[in-house]
Amino acid sequence: MPVAIITGASKGLGRALAEALAERGWDLVLDARTAGVLQETAAALAKYGTRVEALPGDVTDGAHRAGLVAAARELGGVDLLVNNASALGAEPLVRLDALALDGLRRALEVNVVAPLGLVQEALPLLRESPAGAVIDVSSDAAAEAYETWGGYGASKAALDHLSAVLGEEEPGLRVWAVDPGDMGTDLYAAAVPDDEDPRPEPARVVPAFLRLIDRRPASGRFEAPALLEQR
């Protein structure tokens, strides 16, 4: 069975994607900071009969990243790495003139440094896979200038660039930066708590990610809404 590592997998997009892959028979290594919620997710996915390793921890911890890859190796390797865990830098979001530099450092550590560290750790196994792929979850804030989204957007723009360069340096892999579009997630609620407008559930965009995995287009940046419109 193919094996995926998914960070930030206890809820939101990470959980929705993990469930879709489990339904397809993928074995999974899941990460999140909150152990209890992560274990509940792993137990819920067990109904599909696949192997699920749930490792609570912080992706900025190198030992934790090594543990994720070691767990995947025990399952047979790494065919897909999904860097989904994210940090905002401030909750709620604030203008740049009020953004604490420690908050910006945290966003860069979680959204840029940790994904690269996990890629570096997993690369030998990804290269061995006949269909190795990396999905870096991006944001429209990486490409557009929205007030108060400067720190988070800058970190996601940096992740986009790392994804593009990795795609050039690793032609045997597929490296996709994916903007999932608007979603109703805890992350968005923490970013803009006063926005009560309804937003799509994360499960609504999962078919876009599955389309990438199935069709394996060339490495690049994609927007989930556009992928969903393709025939």
TrEMBL record:
Keywords: Oxidoreductase. InterPro entries: NAD(P)-bd_dom_sf, Sc_DH/Rdtase_CS, SDR_fam. It holds the Pfam family adh_short. Belongs to the short-chain dehydrogenases/reductases (SDR) family. This is SDR family NAD(P)-dependent oxidoreductase. It comes from Streptomyces phaeochromogenes.
